[in-house]
């Protein structure tokens, strides 16, 4: 039973860190939203945090081992970029980060020893960032005089849960893209091959949003449960809707109002970025809801098309976000919406035709209702793409279009 004394103890801890009650409740609301709970669950999250933080001050910190595989440490950087003081720093108080190549002050053998002791004691969470490298007999990545794969197996075997953090950890990411000479793959796929049954929670993203990790830690550490996960082991509350579903530019998409060139009038008007390569329609993640940098903004709001960094499928190495989404900021000739995944240069024609037809009907409706004035229309750009296979997609040029028409006697 929570006493007035413990509540005020917690309040004191907040104010000692310069965190207002209001900003703490805002964090709890965001954690609840990221976990797919209603905003009404914020007080429940707050209560769990209060109890856990107070428990932590009495020596009950939950041990965490954070291993870097083949990574750029971007996910660690992303997690570490909390403002100081910030409410999120309170959450960090619930874990004891016993090992992190990037964040720990200690280094060398004493660090390795701390890791071994944590593994032996058990009851910890393993966060694994970056791809697993199987290449050259596991020698593609060596840490502390042994292959990275051995470190993963040792730490994963005895953990309560493994969090595969970032798209590289989910299915290889940048390292897993063609030609993949280092034999990169995701954590879940590697552990499955090694016969290790520890549950894996997959949090894609390049980098992963720190609030997604906080939300999973709140679930596992404080609420003592796993988040509800989909068939790809991703928390449903975070990764079930597309970027497009929650995009503030969606009204412009519906109105057929698109940006075809950076620096254009349409861009200044905040139109939809689809022709510039936005992968929002096929990428599942709640970036538009949780946002980035302490909920200040996010990719599409800042004017950058979504490049689909959360499209990582642990069950399918071919569904690697780098492979399916490059070149960035260029519209692909193939269209993909939701779960319709079509690899560029393969069987796109039938589906593209179907989707193009849908867009033509959509555009026709827009024209009839007078909602499609200004800018080049989508079908014009598509036909320009078809006539200029040698030119970069999305570089539609109205003058070229006119010259083509003249050459063809139209
Ligand atoms: Fe937003 Fe991209 Fe969808 Fe346009 S295509 S509405 S910019 S997510
Ligand atoms: Fe990645 Fe797209 Fe989310 Fe940006 S909006 S973080 S590119 S999934």
CATH superfamily of the largest domain: NADH:ubiquinone oxidoreductase-like, 20kDa subunit
The helix/strand series, from N terminus to C terminus, equals: HHHEHHEHEEEEHEHHEHEHHHHHHHHH
Low-pLDDT stretches: 1-5, 338-376
Radius of gyration: 24 Å
Total of helices: 19
Short overview:
This protein is of the alpha/beta class and 410 residues long. The protein has helices spanning 4-16, 21-34, 42-57, 74-80, 87-92, 109-121, 148-157, 167-171, 173-176, 187-193, 210-222, 236-239, 250-254, 265-268, 287-290, 321-325, 348-368, 378-387, 398-407, and strands at 62-68, 95-100, 125-129, 132-133, 142-143, 146-147, 161-165, 184-185, 200-203. It has three domains: 2-240 and 312-342, 3-Layer(aba) Sandwich (Rossmann fold); 241-311, Cytochrome-c3 hydrogenase, C-terminal domain (Cytochrome-c3 Hydrogenase, Chain A, domain 2, Irregular); 377-410, no CATH class.
Can you walk me through this structure?
With 410 residues, the chain is of the alpha/beta class. The protein contains 19 helices and 9 strands. The chain starts with a helix and ends with a helix. Strands 2-1-3-7-9 form a 5-stranded parallel beta sheet, with helices on both faces. The chain folds into 3 domains: 2-240 and 312-342, Rossmann fold; 241-311, Irregular (Cytochrome-c3 Hydrogenase, Chain A, domain 2); 377-410, no CATH class. The site of one iron/sulfur cluster has 14 residues, from helix 13.
